[in-house]
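INTERNAL AUDIT FORM
Audit reference: QA-55
Scope: verify that the stored structure record matches its stored sequence.
Auditor: D.O.
Record contents follow.
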Amino acid sequence: MSLQDLGLHGATDLAGTRGLGGGRPAGAPRNVMRLAALRWDRIHVGQIETGRLVLQAIDRESASILLDRRRPPGVVFAPGYPSQFSLETMGLVVGTQAPGRFGPFFMVRKADGAVIGEIGCSIDEAAATGHVGYSVVAPLWGQGYATEALRALLDHVLAQPEVGRVIGHTMVDHTASRRVMEKAGMLYRGERAAIEDGELIDLAVYEARQHPGSLGGYWMLDRASSGHPPASPV
C-alpha cells in the first residue's frame, strides 16, 4: 500500500505491503506497504485505542518538527524511527490543507509511549471504498503491532455506512504482509499486475467488507475465514 492509501497525496512504500498507484521512491525498500489520495471530509477521527497501542492523528506541527529531523516535545521514538517512509508521510501532512478523516495516525505503544510507525485509510467516496496503508519500524516487525492497528482501523472505517469495503494490496511474495491483512480479517480476492518504476509486478489483493447486516448501526467486519470473531456492536 502507499502514502496515498494513508489518505495523503503521493505514493511510497510501507511496512511489508505494496499498494495502489504511484511509484516507489529511489532507494526505498521493496518490502513496504503503500498508502491512495486522501479525502478531507466528514468525521475526523483523532484517536483510536487498542490493547497495546494508541493511534494518534498526526498534527501538522509535529510533522513539521520531524521533517527538520527534530523530536517533537513529549514524543518518544522507538528504535528505527523515523523511517524514510515516516519522513515522506510528514511531508505530505505538512502540505495538506485539512486533517485526514482516518489518519494518518502515529502508532504509539502504550507500554512506553514510543512512536513505532504510521497507519491510515483514504476514502474513495465515488466507489464507497477505503484504501489502507501502514508502516512499522523494522526492529518491531513480527510482534503483531501492524495487525492490531489495522484491525482497529478497519473496525472504525467499516462502521461508516457510506464505506462498503476496504482494500489493500501487497507484493505476492510478501508472506508476512499478507498474514497481517489476513489476521486483521481481510480476505484474499486474487491478484493484479501493476507497473512500478518501469517494472511489472504482481500484487495480491485483500478486502474487508461491511457485514451484510448491521447491529445498532454498527457494520461488522467480515472475519469469518480469518478465525477472528466479528466486531461487537457499539
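Auditor finding: record pair retrieved intact. The CA atoms of residues 124 and 161 lie 14 Å apart.
Action required: none
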